[in-house]
Structures are given as structure tokens and as C-alpha cells.
Amino acid sequence: MTVFDYIWLGILAVFQGPEAFSLFGVAISMTIVMVLSGFLLGIAVGATPGLAGPMAMAISLPILISVFGFSPDALLPVMGFLIGVMKGATIGGAVPAILFNTPGTPDSYMTTLDGYPMTRAGYAKKALKIAHFSSATGDTFSDIVLILTAPFLALLVEAYLDLPEKTALLIFSLGFIASVVGGSVGKGVISMGLGLLAVFIGTGEDFYPRLSMGTQALAQGFPIATSVLGVLVLGEVFKSLDDLWQDRRNTRETQAPTQAADQSLRWSDIRKLLPYIGRSAVIGTAIGALPGIGSTLAATMGYGSSARRHAAKRPEATQFGQGAAEGIAATEAANSSVSGANMIPVLSLGIPGNAAAVFLILATESIGGFNPGPTVFKFTTDTVNPELVMAFGLFTIMMIANLFNWTIGGAFMRVVGVMARVPKHLLLPVVLMLTLTAIYVQETRLSAMWAAIGFGLLGYLMRRVGMSPLPFVIAFILGDKLEETARQAFAATGGDPWFLFTNPIAAVLVGLTLLVLVLAIRKPTEIKP
Amino acid sequence: MKNLMKTVAAALSALVIGSASQAADWAPPGPVKLMIAFSAGGGADTQARLVAEALEEKLGWQFIPEQVTGKGGLNLAAAIKDEPNDGSVIGMVVTETLGYNMAAANAGMTPDQFTPIVTTAGFQMAVVAASSKGWTSFADVVAAAKAGEDIRFGTMSPKLSDLAYLLGKANDVEFNIVQVRGGRAVMDGVNAGDMDIGFMAGIQRKGVASGDLVNLASALSKPLDQTPEAPTMADLGVDFVADGYFLFIGPADMPEKARTALADAIGSVASDTSTKAGALIDSAFGGATVFKGAELDALVAGGYSSAGALLDAASE
């Protein structure tokens, strides 16, 4: 068995798997049908504010398993569907972000900053094309990196990052986000602090539910759906409704911007965007390979680094936040390039890099026959290592999904361009209802609805005082992980309270956090959400 | 199998008589709310949902699954406590929920406030290391610790942390005990080298079979199925064990008829490997272990009363 034999067997496993139906005498494998259905569902879900890829994956996984069962044959179709949803949702998320200033998924929040101004300037379709091109490029790049480096890279990263270093890395991420997002470091830090406060309610290791004030509703903590969707989506809906009402009171007509006639994306445009896409794809891929840090941070960092460079190198061009095509490209390339790279820790260590990867791991765990971990990449020559064949099968699935992305993904984006004409007073209630429904699907408790509305009001107030909700959301997502890792690092070092400073890499990361904060306070940043 | 036959017979007689309501002595008064104390999509959650699915198919009962996670099942316990006890609300936890967790939390709940219905499967709880560490027995770990190496011991509940502490104490070494959430996290930590050894409740099966992981000791009162030669806790000088089972519970004082009917129905699905639920239990948890009735009452009562002794021993 050579490496090429393994690759070939992996490809065959996808194309010659259980047959779904035959077309003109050619058997179409179930796996490919599942990748396509997952991809289409993913786009629809991503384009719907209030639904996100991981949510759709969470709901479909139990159904898929009851349909396909637990035999190893089930692995590729089920994983194909989930990977399709994951990739579809990433590009779908850009659609409402660009057209309605409402991010479809948390990681497309940055896309609203330049996407929506472009829509208002009459270039909605062009903005969608840029998002699709950047997203598909970033995704494909990331998958290629995954295939080339999966066996080696995660093992290296894991070897150098021990628990204290991981804690320091999370602190650095939070510090970085709080300082660079939004016009004011103070507001960023407050937003982050509120996020940490919210996530610490009812969680923790102790049996007593902390900060719950004795109520059963708070004892379980706030589910991710209520807080993230509440602050990000409901907050935006409330603010838009308020804007609408203010506008009407001022007897101003709210009308959709007239769209320009020429919306084509030319080679000259693409050439200008390529450096931004390239930088973001590298950032996204690097972040995706680190366990525990997801696409939202990648999008923020991709956008942030490009924004600074753009302002310095091309001060005469349209700046980020005012409808710069480069802003969309930087964000979408970064968040899409996470999905391939986060399979590196998944496949070689069995550790999820983000929420979507969690469900991929859960799928392999429930089905069996594929045990993500270092054994997957053992190239045995005398016998066949079936897990390695599966790994190459998964790589094939990712490339097929990319093919769908380049072809159908683009067509889909052009189709939904017409949605820009839907008037806001009709759309907002629909978005509101979809979001509340989505939260209820996840959390079938009425208390979750009240919590979501509460977070919506918080998001509304934050927008009114000019505070970015993003540090809140990221702190909410990483807070649990931060507490857990810090607790573990403390225990693992035998109760050393200085674990952040006694390990050189951790100490450097903590130093960098302080440096970023100080620099951001001294000089106002260019990013304005 | 016997229960299955019984049910089949009952179903056939129902056909003959022509009325489903007379099929069994008891049927739920409406759709049954099934609370699940495990996060959605995991092995335990899938097990609960598949059991519900099989019962819907077989008996026509309806289930509404709902996640009530957190605090080792105590959140579920608090939520189910005041629900109606007519069999219309049941929940799936682990025996530790009504045992150590309830005793340690001291949150004003006791096992008397619940009706244990039936267990489905037991844990194959073991002390596991990555084989790359080169340890083949627990004695090797103790020797390494005595030679001055810091040993990180991964656990997934306060009870297991206590056991890890006592294991160290009995062998004159001190472990750096790292408590994480769920067996999956322990296995990830051991595989990634963040931890040296850890407790795993059956998730290690495949890794041990492929030679990547090694079972160093059984944390049960009996030897492990997979590695019978590994010493038990008693062999290592610890008087406490981590035997545990997936457990269906209801609110207190559930009518005997409802309790028996539910226990029989769930137990038969769990033991029947031709159902999806039974197949999962067989492949992931090494087969069904069904306790019900008086036997289960004794098991739950024993778990709660021995928790105090473990707490005392660990705080000495």
C-alpha cells in the first residue's frame, strides 16, 4: 500500500459507496447526494439570520444516524452531509449580512461593515459575487493546506501548547478582540466583560449553580443560542425597528436603494482583491488549525489586519467600513478558510476547533469505525489502515463540496440578489419570528425565549451607545473554555498560581495582550463597526 | 428476550381483541416528556433518543425529548422533581446523579424525591494511559511518580477526582488531578499529552483494541471486560469504586404499575440488539445491564449512603 493507493481507495469509497439512484445507467453514490443536500441546506440556513450551521448540524445529526444506522458505511454519507452544511452555511451567512445588515452567522458580522454600505450604494450583487469568490477561494486554499499538512501540523502545535499556553492564548484572543473591534478600547473591554459575566452564570465545576440567585431558570446558564442570537440578531432587529419608526416619524420614505446596472466582477477587480484574500486565507487557516478558536475570531483578525494595511497603503481608496470591496473579501476569505483547517485538529487529535467540528466529532463517535486521533494517519504498508482510507474519503468529500461551492454556490448568490428589494417592514418581523423559532428549536423552554429577548434588548442598548456586540459574543463563546483551561492548567501544574508567567510561551502571550491593549489605547484604530 | 416475547404476545392479543388500549396493563396518559441530562448528539443522548424511537415504534407511545443538562444530572433532577408522577415525565441520568452528586451538592434533594425506573447499561470505568507513555501497569505510574515525575490525572466528575486522590494516597504519591467535562475530554487530553492518565468509562474501548491506549486499572468492583488482568480499586488499596449505570428516573412515588411498565419496556429495548438502541448499547457500552424494581432501589440507596463515606475519606 503506497500513499497513492490510499488516496485512490479514499476516492473510490466516496464514488462507489452505497448507491442512491442511477442516472442514465451511471450509479450516483449516496455520499455525493448527501454532500449536495447538506450544502444546499447549509446555504439556506446560513442565509437565514438566526440559524447557523452548527445548529442545523445539531438537529440533523440524530435524524441522519437513525436513517443511516451505525455501520461504517454510514460514515461518509453522514459526514458528507454535515461537511456540506458547514461549508454552505459559511457562504450563506454573507447573504443577509450584505443585503440586510443582519449577519446570518456570527462569523459574517464583519461582512456587514462593508457589505451593507455597498448594497446601499447600489452594488448588492457585486458585493455578493465578491463574498462568494473570496469565500470559495479561502475554503479551497484551506482544504489544500489540510490535505498537505494534517498529519504533521496539529501534532506540532499540540506539542508546543500545553494547558498554561492554551490559557494564555485564549486571554490574548479576548484582549485582542476587545482592543481592536469598535472605536473605543473601554467599550470593547466592557462588552467583553459583559459577555464573560453572562457565560459564567450557572456554569462552572461546582454543584451549586453560581450567580443563579436560587432560580431554576438561571441554574442551567444561558444557552449559546439565546445569548448569541439575542445580542447579534434580535439586537439588530430591535434597532432596525426603532430606526424604521424614527424614520417614519420624521416622515422620511424608507426605500430600497436603486441598484446599479453594471454589477459584474471583472478580472481587474479580482486582481485588486487577491492580496487581501490571500492574507485572510492564511490567517483563517492558521487560526483554524489551533484547537478551540473558531471562525469568528478569524473573520475579525482577517478584517482587522487588512483594514490597517488598507488605510496605510491606499489612503485614497474607499476605506473599510464605508463599503470597501476589500473588506468583504478579507472577512469572507478568513471565515471560510477556517473550515478546512479546523479539520486538522479534528482528524489528527480528535479535538474540535469550533462548534461545527464538535458535531463532526460527535458523528464519528456515534457511528464508529473511525476514531479521530493520531492513529488515523498511520501509513501501514503491509495491511490496509481503514481509517486512513476514510480520511482520504473525507478529503474527497471536501473537494466535492468545493466543486459545488464554485458552481452552484455562485448561482445561488445571484438568485438571492433579488431579496435586496424586500421591504424592511415586511422582512424584520419574518427575521424576528425565524430567530425566535430557531432559538425555540434549540431550547424548548419559555424561559429561553425571555432570555433571548433580554439579550436582544442588551444588544439594542449596546448599539445605541456605540458599543460593538462582537467582544460580548466572542467572550460568551470562549469564556467557558477559558475558565476550564485555566482551571485545568492550575491543577495540572500542581496548583501553581503563577502558571501564566512561569512558562515562557504563556508569558510572551500575556505580555502581548498587555501590549495590544496599551497600543490600542494610545492610538485609535481604524475599524469602526 | 423474554420481555420482548411478552410484548409481542401482548401486541398480537391486542390485534385479536381489536383495541390497543387493552394491549398492556398500563400506557402513558399522553405524550411522555423525556428529559435527557446529556448534551445533544453525544452517545448518551443518542441512546436516550433511540430508546424513545424504538418504544414509539413498538408500543405506539409518544415521546418528546428535551435536553436538561448540567451539574452531573442535578439540573435534571431539580426540574423533574415537581412534575406529575403518572409516567408522563421521565428523565435519563446516571446512577451517580442520585448518589455522590446529590450527596455532595447538599442542595436539599435526596433520592427519595425520585423514582428510579430502570438502568440500561453500565460503564467500563478504567484508569487509562496512552501506550506511548510506555506504562503497562499502574505500578509503572506509581514508580514514575515516586521518581519525581509530575503525573496529571484526568477525571470527569468530583467523585472520580476523590477516587484519583485516594488512589494516590493509598500508593504514597500525589497526582495533579485535572477535572474536565466528560469522558471524551479526558480521552482527548490523554491523547494530546495534556494529561498522563485518566478515568474513561468505556470510550477507550476502540483505542485499547488498536493498541493506542492501555487500561492500567479497573475502577469497578470487578475486573474490566476488555482487560481482565488489570487490578481493581481494591487491589490498589482503595475501598471505593466507580461502578455506574445509565438510569431512567421519574418523580417520587410513581404508581407501581407505571414504573413496572416503563421499566419492562425500556429494559427490553435496551437488551434487544436488533433495535437501533440495543445495537448502540452493545457497540458503545459493551451490552445492556438492566436493573429494576427492588434490586434497583437497593443500588440507588447504596450509592447515596456510601457517598458520605467517600467524601469523608477524601477530605481526611
Task: Provide an overview of this structure.
Chain B: Pfam families: TctC (PF03401). Chain B: It comes from Aliishimia ponticola. Chain B: InterPro entries: BUG (IPR005064), Bug_dom1 (IPR042100). The complex is a heterodimer of chains A (529) and B (316). Chain A has 529 residues and is mainly alpha-helical. Chain A has one domain (3-522). Helices cover 71% and strands 2% of the residues of chain A. Chain A has 22 helices and 2 strands. In chain A, strands 1-2 form a two-stranded antiparallel ribbon. Chain A is globular. The model of chain A is unreliable at 525-529 (pLDDT under 50). Chain B is α/β, with parallel strands linked by helices and 316 residues long. Chain B has 2 domains: 2-123 and 244-314, D-Maltodextrin-Binding Protein, domain 2 (3-Layer(aba) Sandwich); 126-218, 3-Layer(aba) Sandwich (D-Maltodextrin-Binding Protein, domain 2), CATH 3.40.190.10. Chain B is 44% helix and 17% strand. Chain B has helices spanning 2-17, 43-59, 74-80, 95-105, 138-146, 158-170, 182-192, 205-210, 256-271, 276-285, 293-314, and strands at residues 32-36, 63-67, 89-94, 114-122, 126-130, 152-155, 176-179, 197-200, 213-218, 245-251. In chain B, the strands form 2 sheets. In chain B, strands 2-1-3-10-4 form a 5-stranded mixed beta sheet, with helices on both faces. Residues 13-23 of chain B have low confidence and may be disordered. The interface between A and B is large, with 44 and 51 residues.
Mean pLDDT of chain A: 80
Unreliable stretches of chain B (pLDDT < 50, length at least 5) are: 13-23
Largest sheet report of chain A: 2 strands, antiparallel
Shape of chain A: globular
Q: CATH topology of the largest domain in chain B, which one?
A: D-Maltodextrin-Binding Protein, domain 2
